[in-house]
Every structure is written in C-alpha cells, then in structure tokens.
Amino acid sequence: MLTEMTIANAIEGLRQKEFSADELTRDHLKAINLLNNRLNAYITVTEKVALGQAKAADEKLASGDAPMLTGVPLAIKDLFCTKDIPTTAASRILENFIPPYESTVTANLLKDGAVFLGKTNLDEFAMGSGNLNSVFGAVENPWKRKGDDAFLVPGGSSGGSAAAVAARIALGATGTDTGGSIRQPAAYCGITGIKPTYGRCSRWGIIAFASSLDQAGPMAKTVEDCAILLQSMAGFDPKDSTSVDREVPEYRAACNRSLKGLRVGIPKEYCASGMSSEIEAIWQQGIDWLKEAGCEIVDISLPHTKYGLATYYIIAPAEASSNLARYDGVRYGHRVSGNSLDELYANTRGEGFGVEVKRRILMGTYVLSSGYYDAYYLRAQKVRKLIYQDFMNAYEKVDVLLTPTAPSAAFAKDEHQDDPVQMYLNDIFTVPASMAGVPGLALPAGLNKQGLPLGLQLLGRPFDEETLIAVGSAMEKAANFTYKPAIHSGVSL
Amino acid sequence: MTDKQKDDALDIKIVQRVAKLSALAVKENELAIYAQDLGGIIHWVEQLNELDVSTVEPMVGAENAKLRMREDKVTDGNCREAVLSNAPERIADFYAVPKVVE
Amino acid sequence: MNYVIVGSTGSWEVVIGLEVHAQVISKAKLFSGASAHFGSEPNTQVSLVDAAFPGMLPVINRECVDQAIRTGFGLNAQINLVSRFDRKNYFYADLPQGYQISQFTHPIVGKGEIEIELDDGTVKKIGITRLHLEQDAGKSIHDLAPKETCIDLNRSGVALMEIVSEPDMRSPEEAGAYLRKIRAIVRYLGTCDGNMEEGSMRADVNVSVRKPGEKYRTRCELKNINSIRYVMQAIEIEAKRHVEIYENGGEIDQETRLFDVVKGETRTMRSKEDAHDYRYFPDPDLLPLIVEQSHVDHLNATLIELPDAKRNRFQNEYGLSRYDANVLVAEKDIADFFENVAKGRDGRLASNWVTGELFAVLNKKGLSIHDSPVKAEAIGALLDLIGDKTINGKIAKEVFEDMVETGDMPADIVKRKGLRQVTDTGVIDKVIVDILFANADKVEQYKSGKDKLFGFFIGQVMKEMKGKANPVIVNELLKKHLSV
Ligand SMILES: [Mg+2]
Ligand SMILES: [Zn+2]
Question: Which fold, C425-482?
Fold first, then answer.
C-alpha cells in the first residue's frame, strides 16, 4: 500500500517514477472503499474526478514540468466550495448544492497539481468539537482505547479530515479552524495540523462560520507535510478583504532550522485546574525536549486566558447568526414551502439546520439584539482585545508558546452530550489563539495510558508560521510518534 | 432539570422572539430545551462581567489593517445561469418565492 | 412665510427631517465587480457575491468611496477619515445576504449644512446629520405570476448614499426646496443622476407636528417616496393627520407608513411593536475604511464648482442679480451654457438672452438645454454683432428667430437678409429731413411742448429704414433737427 507514506515521500517517489499518481490514487480509493463505511470520514468520494486528475498528473510528471503537489491525493473538508462537486457543510440546508466556483485555497492546491479524493465530514457549518453535529452522521475516530471498541470521536469540526489522514485514506487534508477545529481534531487523531495567522489563507469560497476567526489550514502526518501543503494553500487573495498581502515564505525550509537560543513561553494559565496528570506530563515532556534542543524556557502569563471561551461563545455565534442568514431556501439548497415568505424562511431554516447550529444562531441573535448588544457583544469584543494584548505582550518576551492542545484525549461518542457548555470546554486551549488571530500548530506528542494520542500546541507571532514549523519539526523528531490507530489502511476490518 | 438549570433558563417569550428574528421555526416542545440551553450558556458567558473593560477599545477582527479598495471596473456578473442554477424554484429568469404582499 | 396648520386648538408647526437615498454613479457595484448599469435583462448584472452564495466576500469599490466624499464636500460636511461598515440584519425577499452592508456607527461623512432658498427669497440653513454608504437591495416583482413574487437581483449591491438631514424643515415647501438642492448638488458633482422617477433618488420623510415652542413630538416615517411633489403632498397629509388625532385627544404611534398617491392618504406599514431589531454589528468581512487626508485634499482640489459658489461668482463676475444667478445655476448644464455665452461679453446681456429668448424657445419646443437648437457659440456671435454695432437689438431678435429655424450662424443671416445696420449719418439725415417735412404739423406740435412725439419720429425713421438704422445715431440727428 502506498497510503503509508508522507507527502514528502510521495512527491519524491512520483518524481523518481517509483510509482505513478494513478497507482497512488487507486491505493487511496481502495482504502477509502474499505474503511469509509465504518469511519464515515468522507461525505462525498470523487473517484472519477480523482482518477482524471491522477492521469493528468502522470502526464505532467512525464513531461518533467510538474508543480510541487502533482499527483498528491488529498481530502477536502466539505466546507470548501469545489466547482461542480456537491458542497454541503454537513448540513441539510445545503442539500444538492453544487457550487459553480472553486474556493481560492482549493484552487491553489489544484493549480499545484493535487488530486482530490473527496469531501470530508465535519460538524455542521463547522460548529462542534466532536464531529457529532453532521447531518451525514458522526465520524469514528480510528483510534481505540486499549482493549475497548468504544466509538470515540475524532474531534471537530474538521473531524473527517483528521480521521482520514490518521486512517491513511488521504495523504493530507484541508481543515478550517475557527476556535480550534484543525488543532483539536489533529490532537484527538494523532496527526499534525496548522491554523495559520488570520489573513494568511484566503477565506473566499469557504463557507463562513465566524468571519473574523475562520482560517483554512493543512492537516497531515508530519510537520513537513503541513509545511508543504500550507505553502500551496497560503497567499494573498484580492477577493478577500481580510487577506493579507504578504510574501509566502518557503515553509518547508524552516523544518531544519536550529532552535538555539529560541525563547519558549509556558503560559501558566493553561495549567487549568482539573487538567489530567497525563496532559501535564506530556506538556512537561515537550518542555524537556525543547530544552534539549537549546531553547530557553520562560514562564509567562496570559492573564485573560480563562475568558477566551466565553468571549468566543459570544462572538462566534453572533457572526454566525448573520453569516447563516443567507441560507433561506430561495437561491440554492434545501427549501421547505410555506404559505408566506416568512413561513418559507422559518420552515426551511427550522428543518434545514441541526440543533447545534440553531442553538448558536439563537445565541448569536440574542447577544446582538437591542438591549443586549453592549452587555454581551461589545463587552466580548473588548475582552477579545485584552486577549490579543496578552499575546502581544508575551511575544515581547518569547518567540513561541508551548501548551497542550486539548484538555483530554478523544472522548467517547456518548460522553458530554447533554450539556453544551461541557462540550465547549474541549476548545479551552485552542480558542485564545483564534481570538488573537495568531498562528498555531498541533502535533502528537505521545500516547496516554489507554493508548490514545495526546497533542501539544505551539502558538506563534502573527505571520511567523516558520517558527512553529521549526519548533514543531524538532519536537516531532524527539517525540518519534510512530504509532498507528487501530483502524487504518493497513488493517483488515 | 436541576434547580440551577431552571433558574438560568431564559423566558420562553424571549426564545420565541429571538427565533422569530432568526427566521427559525422552533417546535413547541423544543422551546423549553432551547430556553434551558441558552440560559445556561448565557449565564456561563456572564463571567466576562468580572472584568473592567471601560477603557478598552473593542477588537473587531484583524488589527492594524485597513480596507483594501478595488478599481471601479466591471469584472463580474453576466453569469445568469450560474446564479440561477441552484435555485429551488425559478420563473423564467427570476428566483420565485411565495407572493409577498406589501 | 410661516407654514402652519390651524386646528381647533390653535396653530401647529410641522417638523420635517429627510433621509435621501441617492444611487452612486459608478461602473461597478459597491462590493462586487458586477455592473451597476440600470435597466438590463433580469439577473444578468449579478455576481455570486450579489446573490450571496456561500463563501462569497465583499471587496469595496474605490470610486464609490470617492463619490461619497465628493458629495460630503457638496454638503459642506465633515469627512471622516476612519469609517466602518456594519451589517443591518433582516430577512427580506430581495435581500439575499439576509443583511444589508451599511454604515451605522461610523459613517464616512458627518455633520454638514446646506442652504435652501424659498420662493419669497428667504434663505434657510438645513443641517445634515450624516451621509453613509450602503448597498441597494434587489427588486421584487409581484405581477408576473399569480402566486409568486419574482426576484431580480440586478440592483442588489449597487452603491447608495444615504443622506440624513436634521429635523430642520418646517413646511412642505422647505422640504421640496431641500430635495431640489440635494438633487442639484449630486448632479453637479456627478455623484448621482438624481433621477427620482427611475428610483435613483428616493426619500424617506420623517414628519411630526407641535405647538410653537414645544419639544418635538412623536414622528412617523413615510417610506420611499419617489417625487418631490409627492413628498410635499405626503407631508401635508401626514401633518394634518397628526393634528386631527391630537385634537381629538389621541396620541401618535411612532411607526413606518406608506404614502398612497392614488388615495391621497398615508397608512401603517410597520407599527412600533413589530419594528425590526436590526442587530447592527461591524461587518467582520470588511476592515475599517481609512482614507488618507492627502487623498481627501486631492478630491477637494479637483472638486467641481457647486451651485452656491457658482451663483456667488456669477453675481460678482457678471454683475447678475441673485435671482437671475440662481435661475442660471439651478442646473449645471444651463450654467455651463450661460458661461459659454457670457465669457468675454456683457454678462447681463448674455443672461437676458439665455433666460429670455432662449428659455422661451426651449419651453415652447419642450427641449432641454442639451438639445437646444441654438448653440452657445451662436448666441455669443449674435451678442458680438450687437456689440460691434453690426446690428441693433431689434434686428437681433429677428436674426435669433432665423437661427432657431435654420441653425445658421448670425453673421450669415445678417448677410443673407441684408440686415446690417445703417450708420451712415448722411443716409439717416436724408430720411429724417424727408420725414420731418412730411409731418410738418407734428413738428409744430412738438415744438409747442408735446415731447411725446419724439418717439413717433423715431418710429417713422426706423420704419422707413426697415429697422436697420443705428438707433443712437437716429436719436442724435433727430434731436439736432428738432432743436433748430
Ligand atoms: Mg434609513
Ligand atoms: Zn438606507
């Protein structure tokens, strides 16, 4: 099976003619056929499209003029609009929606020769931390607790992408991260993911959840693979007013940078009470690795960390309540008729959206409505500024921050379901960086006693993804995380 | 439902008003659940009241950036089929909705 | 001139504020690259941004921003270097995004002031509260299908300027004058075509009444009125309604009302209870709109002359009365036409010819100045012929009539018709002598004190000379002969 390799290996192998793009793609499609019924990682498998792209890739490779990702099979989160391919946001309301356009990020990947295997499952409109809120059903985490076949969640919202990469049914994937939706599922599935700086990747053509927070990013087995994907995905886009016009550096080159003298901050506030000893231990392990690599460890404070989640759960729903107003059954998607236009709207949206999406729309409408705006929304924007300033102050003392990615390992499908606030706490370590717009990288650092992956998170200065990649690569070498999940392309079910 | 959850629950009337503003049909039996869930979330986010933010400027999004402007050129449009291709209902070259009375 | 409504409890004053929506003249829309042109096939001038497809994002059009700033100068208003776009959230058939991008808390143009002039010559200042940029909605068509409303998004996303006045107007006449002034300003600046019939300028009118000296009472908003005449009518009707209700012991509810032109009444559109809660918040897809002072200065420096400034200049430069100057500056095309005639010539004479002879012809033929059968250069040439005494004023009118008919240049007409004025004193003297001889009795009467007969002699001479004699010379010679 060719599904085991990294993207870096695949790029090399394709060029050395060790295998063809067609073979690589067929191996992946075969594995998807075997595993996807169980994992439910893909909503749509675009077999024909993928084989066509693979054929074109082989021709390019033969001509000797092939861009970086030529022939590399990827999975695309079903939040990216893909031309002529159904795009659902895992919502009934986008039933049968076929975009007549390609998102900028996926267009960049296609331009660089990538092969798209299909569209991956997610929490509806990217709202969730367990990939449990999909109209297409939950995604199963390919990892299992030792001696226990319980259905664990892959994290969310990019749960399908994370599970696909972990189970080796895609070499890499795209994700989006609004409050941790790349980093948290990466941690739960034992893979690597980068949420770039806000403005680094274009949001054009990505179905919006919370516009001031949404960022696309890569998910893959290694830091280097993420660097390769980010190189292609990132870049200025005049069609997105929040896209930043700034050169894209050679991310891959940062993988081998020396860390000598680099100052690494350890924010004491992330030592949340009730943090499991396993998480604490893996965090300490990460600190030790970096010390050995020549970094200086500095204790720092991000005093407003504890308010991150509450701030997020005002701002994100507020923006979402407005962003999702366009799903009204008039121009595209699901429609439920009514006797009047108002009834049509209410019926369409009442039936088209799932419970969590409706909960957040209601919450967002509430905090923006007259009489509540100042008390909730305006206050949250101010606290957001304090959180942002915390980070900026920290970056005067240190170059990068090291924290755990999530407060626990992957949880079982039937845990935390009753109380939304308990569910929201999964994002406690990822949300502050989203609020500040700074980049984050999550990577697997080890296994807990039950045999589940635990992740560490690096947070960097705005537009300094390179330092994250440099530090991440060093930690990756030290961690030597070679474990594989119980379910992957190399096993028979 | 615990006593605390009952205490935090939103007034059903507020849920109805917010649902109407959101153009969401909420079934009678779901109202109480939303009232409780939203009440709980709202109570929880009120922890922000601990902070004195009277002198803080609100943060809207990307900081220190300004809006980029495009030139006044016609670069888009003239794509009626693309615009209408996904419409659940259309009449001739229009989107169609139930009659709106003004 | 005070406008009051006299009721059974005394006199009432009307308080009026206006919100004008003016469509910005630009090639493309405010946030998309689709054409802003009016009147194309349905849904052809629509981008996926305008139709609010998933993941579509707004990018602002620089020209729309500049047009708003220019208009701000026209309103003598504060230009805000930092402004912001907010979302105004509501569901409506022709609002695809489910929100309108507008400027709520931080408009691009702040406080300003314009002068209006009433028929009796009174000049009044009207405060401008703000001008902000926002998107237009699409169009709902209700009469195409029996059970459906059809939606055309061609206008969706076209840039509008909303100009909000202070509640400074006190009569329908003032509101009319205000609208005409706003229209003149935007037309001068080329920022909006001011065409109310096509809907590129529309007004929302806020009306309340009060007893003199009272605080403001509750106002009602009359939505989307598309002619100045209707605005004036609607104010009158709405104010009377208020007075009637108050005098019958009732109260006015703050609400949005529609003006029914046919029935001549206003009626409730939205009461306060179901007033929208628009949930304004800063649009996270757009960053703050920051304009450089240097750019604002540049726009100011290249700004076209506005009606008030032009009127003042016409008064100073051409010696016109304020009234005549106002008539000429009411439309920029007329003012430009006048200046082409007047430049280097007698300004008052030019003004008389343009507002007199020319306007009469245009009125009669129902033409705009743009389609005038006589070009400014031709009228100028005519004035030159008067100036160098080639023809006199009376002959000039005959020449002008010919110009209107034939489009020929005045010199050609004078030549063709032999209308050159006679200045040869010998010729004129001979005619005078003959006429005085033939009218010896009248000469006697004149000499015995009947001064009025002087006009008779002039008339006779001119008649004999077919109007072509130089009137100054005729005058002089006649006086000389009669005083002997
Ligand atoms: Mg208004
Ligand atoms: Zn408006």
Answer: Arc Repressor Mutant, subunit A (1.10.10)
